[in-house]
Amino acid sequence: MLVRVVEDQGRESERALDAVLGAFRRLETAVIPGVVELAPAYTTVGVFFDPALTGFDAVKTEIEQVLQNTDPAKPRGGTGSTIEVPVCYEDEFAPDLREVAWHARLSAQEVVRRHSAAMYRVNCVGFTPGFPYLSGLPAELATPRRASPRMEIPAGAVAIGGTQTGIYPRKSPGGWSIIGRTPLSLFDVKREPPSLFRAGDRVRFRRISREEFQRPSA
Questions:
Q1: How many C-beta atoms lie closer than 10 Å to residue 71's C-beta?
Q2: pLDDT of 7-39, one tens digit each?
Q3: Which residues contact 98 (CB under 8 A, 6 or more apart)?
Q4: Cα(72)–Cα(74) distance, rounded to whole angstroms?
Q5: Domain C-terminal end among 19, 41, 68
Q6: Which domain covers residue 47, as residue numbers?
Q7: Tell me, what CATH number does 54's domain have?
């Protein structure tokens, strides 16, 4: 079941995300019987329920009652933190950096500087487990998705797709322009929670050297 919170216009705005997260937190706090998972997106919150425990009409009624309460709800487990992501922008990790620079009419070094200087926000997590869709990309760095997607993108690839930037958590196909790579593990089923990112988190990229990227983690 999809619960629409805001309209599509300006879906990547701070206000739209705050509205979606507010609805998500109220639903999360309510612990509606039969609901097994909640998934916030750009304009909606996905509500997944077990039909053996409850029915559509019952869940719909509960949701409507919960969302009528406009009091702010505190998220469980904490959300909205700032996460620093180390990124190596060296050539072997950034096959599309010069193409992005050409499109932006900037030098490759200036693209890196602007990309790593911005503050981003996680709009939603999806596509593959742990993939963060980040708003806040400087407008001049916006780059259309590739006409021919790659069949394989390495885990940790930092990329630009349209007006957003994101990070591939595992090896997968993809059509975004790759400008760097992080050594961080974005998704680990043995970790709680498994995903490094949650909707609403703020993200900063920190440029690192090739040596630091290859340094074993502690």
A1: 6
A2: 765 555 777 888 888 888 888 888 899 999 888
A3: 108
A4: 7
A5: 68
A6: 2-68
A7: 3.30.1360.40
